[in-house]
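Hey L., structure's done. Input below.
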Amino acid sequence: MLWLYRFLFIPALLVMAPRYVLRMRKRGGYGENFAHRFGRHPNLPPSAPGQPRVWLQAVSVGEMLAIGPILEALHRDGVAVYLTTTTSTGYKLALERYRALTIGIGYFPIDGWPFAARAWRRIRPDLVILTEGERWPEHLQQARRRGVPVICVNARLSDRSFARLRAFGPAARLMLRGVTRLLPASPQDEMRFLELGFPRGRIVVTGNIKLDVQVPVLRAAERAQLRRELGVPETSLLVLGSSTWPGEEAALVTALQRVREAGVRCALLLVPRHAERRTEIEPLLAATGLTFHFRSRGAAAGEVDVAVGDTTGELRRLTQLADLVFVGKSLPPQSEGQTPVEAAAMAKPILFGPGMSNFRAIAEDLVRRGAAQTVTDPAELAVACEELLRDPARRSVLAQAAAQWRQENAGAVQRTLAVLHEEFSRLKR
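Output:
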């Protein structure tokens, strides 16, 4: 099967390249170290005696933030980490936060044989850590050929990926062959990996490491300052659209208008999943007659109806201002959902649409425990926003249930580190 993957990879890459180049151009920031994509990473020397070298891949911003505690622990233990990412936003965040914790930061290579092999010859890891859904056949083959263990942390399978892999068994074997240990984020993910044939003895459910990230709590003065910078009135309740996708900004604006018509003082904070979408969000807001401000343009000159957080790595700070959070990529036609974990971890009342397939088990658990509420469409979203913003007691019940859920599901980082230390012990033998 690997030979077929290698044979088809380059033609597929050529077909898909224009779309990806256009996306890179829109997002910007991809020029620095672009050669890493083709395996031209720095030539690292062999590992120092007694100091294992780890190649850690975290695809984008969310994964970059989640691995912070793991990186800090590995650094304290004297482990040398070479960190790679896929997106320009993830790369920027890694440079800002993790320079002192790593021996290098780069882009993950294209998963074609010549590029992956070149990167492996230059990085020379003793252990590979992959986050969430990062399982690339050529990358895994290079590890397997060299006898390097691969651990997938926070591992998960979306509904769509699971259905595809289950329908085509050879692809599942290709995506999992070479993985030494799988650390699923939930029991549901564990069952899916088992159904695809991964050995039970090499799976340990460690939970979701995003629940263990400690977010610095904003002081009252910092919250007030941030609201002023955004243009959010101090006396208004605030609805946050967290990681929104096309169509959801319009739905939230409609919800805002309904809430205000009901006599509730309210403002809206939109944080689109992709900051470059500001060019399509601005005309939408301009057509409504509402006042608005984009955070990327500096501090707001005054109070506005809608603030847009079109910056990178600030969602956790902005979430702390919210009285109600809607989790994006969940209203039809979107079906995969963004993560509700951070909002729950910060004890916020949560709404999301029916399309939460990427986080189905978490979403169902939050709803079952009374920590979140599902809305089926934009009309129901508007109704739910009005009802909850008029009912502080109900919001408090949701928030307390979210806090309890987070507390009961904490500890994933320590469980993950315990497995990593087992592997480090094997390397020393």
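The longest strand covers residues 237-244. The mean pLDDT is 93.

-- N.
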